[in-house]
Amino acid sequence: MIKRKLHFSAWQFILASVFVTFSTLSVYGQDAATNDGEPAAPVEAAGSGNAAAGEALFKANCASCHKLYKKAVGPALHEVSQKYDREWLYSWIKNSAALIASGDAQALAIYNEYNQTAMNAFPQLSNTDIDNILAYTDTPKPAPTAAVAGATGAEQSTGTADNSLNSIVLAALALILVLLVALLFVVNSTLKRFADANGIQTDFEEEKEVRRPIWKAFAENQFLVLVSAVFLLLASAYFAYGALMSVGVDQGYAPVQPIHYSHRIHAGTSQIECKYCHSSARESKHSGIPSLNVCMNCHKSIGEVADATYQEGINEYGIDYNKEIQKLYAATGWDSDEQAFTGETQPVRWVRIHNLPDLAYFNHAQHVTAGNIACQQCHGPVEEMEVMYQYSPLTMGWCINCHRETNVDLANNGYYEKIHEELSKQRGGKQLTIADLGGLECGKCHY
Ligand code: HEC
Ligand code: HEC
Ligand code: HEC
Ligand code: HEC
Ligand code: HEC
Ligand code: HEC
């Protein structure tokens, strides 16, 4: 009777704890969900013009040269409507060159201040469009502390919610374990008392002496010993073989680079083509790493990442993306306030990831251009990599397997057209593999 009762209440307790754990879980889940809202769109400003429409126009036409709060190619435009009168702004924005040519003093002043850089003419913008743009540039600057605290605060609270959620679950599990242990003790002692009360002997000392230890029984059974010895030998040979075969294989190698450079953002989100940066992959043996000039084609005007990207970097990868761009500026000697190079440069020492031993010859053009193989087939899902890593083993077996399995792409490439034609005639039109081309000959890959 006692036992049954105990059993029942233990289950009740466990079920109750599980229920409590899950209900806190779902409450926190809801909190986290409601916390990541989009920042509110700019509201219509007090003056004339629609700031939301203006924002779209600004981003489409002006953002390449102007920022709101910082100098870029042109001046910062925040509250520019207070600097000039409307009519002047209409004519400046529609055609600044004409205004300068007319000898307007204000126009000449700003033109000379910016080293006579020409601003595009926007004859297509109506006065209403310009009003909208100015309404957008007039929207009050979000108070910096409030904005940062607001943005990171919201994210942090989801972060801490996640963390405290984890610790709550862990604490609940620990509690359940402790309770189970306590419960077993109670059950054990109750049963003992029960047995004592009924005069049942619970002392098993004597029986123990009579029983043969299990290891002795095992040692005496020769068949069992033999089987286990063979099993142990095979298992250790298997693991030793695995360990030896992985010597010198750096699959998964992902060193920390001097500038945190995300292929996910560049090749993925921004869809920049691989060959924009690794331009020599098509023509030469090496793919090469782009020089920093290539980066500055874009980063002269991209000094900061978008807010959403910034938050993602902080929360998911623990990286301050804007600081990483500052490292790029330091290395190239770019002064973003003056919009000029200072001439003080430092080389960036990228850590090399893929590296075949000197005894092997590998040529990118052969594979990318002649073989028509996508970079991803060997380098993996690069456009998803926040940190670049070695995806393939780069062993000889890996090269050979692909050469055995891959058919020569006859349709899509005129590079070896003659040879391909001849060979495929010899083989009666059967599919040609790279191995048929001689892709398994030692000399092709070894110097
Ligand atoms: C090709 C780059 C470029 C684009 C695009 C551009 N601007 Fe400009 N803007 C400039 C430059 C450079 C100046 C500084 C004067 C100069 O050198 O002509 C300037 C000056 C101005 C000024 C005067 C600011 C001041 O503080 O004196 C205003 C206003 C302005 N631009 C508005 C706009 C608007 C609105 C757009 C979009 C419809 C736009 N600009 C697009 C380059 C550009
Ligand atoms: C905007 C320039 C840029 C673009 C676009 C780009 N990369 Fe890169 N890539 C780099 C830089 C810089 C490095 C060196 C830093 C690193 O390893 O993350 C690099 C490194 C690599 C490496 C490792 C090199 C090594 O050390 O072994 C591979 C492989 C690679 N990129 C492949 C690709 C592929 C495939 C694509 C297209 C999907 C691509 N990259 C697009 C700039 C770029
Ligand atoms: C074709 C334009 C382009 C080129 C070329 C380019 N970037 Fe970027 N880069 C961007 C854009 C766009 C962003 C910001 C994306 C966002 O805000 O969501 C960015 C973000 C970054 C960031 C912050 C995110 C991160 O990856 O850590 C760094 C650092 C950076 N770039 C470094 C480089 C380096 C180094 C090179 C040269 C090898 C380079 N970029 C070449 C467009 C470019
Ligand atoms: C057939 C497999 C294969 C393909 C396809 C391939 N790579 Fe590679 N890649 C390699 C190997 C192997 C290495 C190591 C080469 C070495 O150490 O000599 C490498 C090295 C690199 C490096 C380091 C620098 C260098 O050249 O040694 C970069 C960057 C790179 N690859 C980018 C690319 C890009 C971009 C593409 C697509 C245009 C591409 N790869 C296509 C196998 C491949
Ligand atoms: C993803 C498949 C793939 C992998 C992996 C691969 N290759 Fe290739 N390889 C090819 C293809 C396809 C060609 C044929 C190109 C052509 O049409 O001429 C080729 C051709 C070659 C050739 C020229 C062969 C000839 O007869 O002209 C050499 C050398 C070569 N590969 C070396 C290597 C080495 C070294 C590795 C490993 C580091 C490697 N390959 C990995 C697909 C691959
Ligand atoms: C398709 C290209 C390819 C062909 C064909 C090829 N190898 Fe290799 N071999 C490699 C690569 C790549 C490595 C380096 C692998 C590594 O670092 O793990 C290698 C490594 C080796 C090694 C090991 C060297 C060491 O120090 O670890 C030997 C030995 C070797 N190859 C012999 C041969 C012989 C013999 C043949 C002809 C029957 C041959 N290879 C054909 C690509 C090839």
UniProtKB/TrEMBL annotation:
Keywords: Heme, Iron, Membrane, Metal-binding, Signal, Transmembrane, Transmembrane helix. The chain crosses the membrane at residues 168-187, 223-241. Residues 49-141 form the Cytochrome c domain. GO terms for molecular function: electron transfer activity; heme binding; metal ion binding. It comes from the Bacteria. SUPFAM superfamilies: Cytochrome c, Multiheme cytochromes. Pfam families: Cytochrom_C (PF00034). InterPro entries: Cyt_c-like_dom, Cyt_c-like_dom_sf, Multihaem_cyt_sf. Residues 1-29 form the signal peptide. This is Cytochrome C. It comes from Nonlabens arenilitoris. The lineage of its organism: Bacteria, Pseudomonadati, Bacteroidota, Flavobacteriia, Flavobacteriales.
